[in-house]
Design goal:
GO terms for molecular function: phosphopantetheine binding. This is Acyl carrier protein. Keywords: Phosphopantetheine, Phosphoprotein. InterPro entries: ACP-like_sf (IPR036736), PKS_PP-bd (IPR020806), PP-bd_ACP (IPR009081). The protein has a single domain (about 5-75), classed as Orthogonal Bundle (Non-ribosomal Peptide Synthetase Peptidyl Carrier Protein, Chain A), CATH 1.10.1200.10. Helix content is about 40%, strand content about 0%. The radius of gyration is 12 Å and the shape is globular. It has helices at about 5-15, 35-50, 65-75. The chain has 3 helices and no strands.
Length: about 90
Amino acid sequence: MPLTYDTLVSVLAEVTGVDEELITPQTTLLDIEMDSLLLVEFAVVLEERHGVDLADNLDLTQGSTIADLVQALAEQSPNAAAAPSTTAAQ
């Protein structure tokens, strides 16, 4: 079963403490205060729960959006889906 946009948002909300409703495809990592330590925690959760290995070489900055993160994961892992659900984009 692929890792969906909605699942990624849920994990991001859990790791960062930001309400899921505030995380959209246009939200940046800076907006949700995702620093390097939180990114490591996020990577560990993805690996443990979904078998997705968040590569150290992902080209993400604090200005990267959630859509950028989802796309990078989809390109890297067959278990990740790039497209946000229709409800997430509203």
